Amino acid sequence: MQFTIKQLRVFVTVARTSSFVEAANVLHLTSAALSVTVKSLEEIAGFAVFERTTRSVRLTPQGAAMLPLAEQLLTEHQKLHESVRHIAQNKSGIVRVGASQLLSCSILPPAITDFQALWPDIDVTLVPAPYDNVQDMLQRKEVDIGVGPERACEPGMTSELLFASGLSLVCSTRHRLAGSKTVRWSSLKDEHVLLADHRAATLLARDSKHVVDFQNAREVGHFSTALALVSENGGVMFAPEFTTPLLRPYNLVMIPMGAPKARRQFMLFRNERAGLSAAARLLTEFFAQRFRAMG
């Protein structure tokens, strides 16, 4: 016959309080129930663990030798209980991911699918962010984490680099530049450049070392809209290298830009005022490992 956790807890509590009455109060037991538990423990041990008088309770030599062992077992039991609780938290829950439109229709869905194959009890919801405003969604606590292109952090926001990707020109297979191995920035001065977001104009001008002024580029609002227009040879656009699979249905080609080379950084955003659940922390760790190889 083995000791139960209840027996060990009663034994340790009586030893620490030196009182059956006080121990019963601490453990929310009746004095009679506590006495029965101590007696059953002594029967299993084969010796008395306490010397009881009308005025005091003290450990017998055998009880004193048993006390540190019982305390150790209770400590290990508590650790086990906490570990199991953490495992249960990690394997369940809901995580809402706010993401830029581009990431939402490219590399994030397969990454989330692979994550949920590992953690099937975690429900991950992907929420595309209008105009890539993932920080706004985090501020309103509509999502738990955000993934998007590098942006200055707003108050209360933090970000960390997930990966970077080279920026290339995208054009129709019928475009005059379609057969080029690389494209010079200066060759785009007279091109109709389509942008999903007007904020990209400033970044592109910076990338070209201001060889081209992209302020007259046309904003179309959505990456998919830009793809469709470019496929009709209605202009050119820029896209990160990881979007190559999206081009095939539109009969488009991707051409690397010549010097100066341009790269886009993609970040993981968090609201520092809101803590991460265990499930959300697992997902952020998975994303970091998944995209690290992309540079």
How would you characterize the overall build of this protein?
The protein is an alpha/beta fold and 295 residues long. It is built from eleven helices and eleven strands. The protein has helices spanning 5-17, 20-27, 31-45, 61-90, 101-104, 108-118, 134-139, 200-207, 223-231, 244-247, 278-292; strands at 50-52, 57-59, 93-99, 122-128, 145-149, 157-172, 194-195, 218-219, 237-240, 252-256, 263-271. The strands form three sheets. Strands 3, 4, 5, 6, 9, 10 and 11 form a seven-stranded mixed beta sheet that branches. Strands 1-2 form a two-stranded antiparallel sheet. It has a two-stranded parallel sheet with strand order 7-8. The longest helix is centred in the N-terminal third of the chain and has 30 residues, at 61-90. The model has no long low-confidence stretch (mean pLDDT 90).
Summarize the structure.
The protein is α/β, with parallel strands linked by helices.
SSE blueprint:
Blueprint: H1 5-17, H2 20-27, H3 31-45, E1 50-52, E2 57-59, H4 61-90, E3 93-99, H5 101-104, H6 108-118, E4 122-128, H7 134-139, E5 145-149, E6 157-172, E7 194-195, H8 200-207, E8 218-219, H9 223-231, E9 237-240, H10 244-247, E10 252-256, E11 263-271, H11 278-292
Parallel strand pairs: 3-4, 3-5, 7-8
Antiparallel strand pairs: 1-2, 5-11, 6-9, 6-10, 6-11
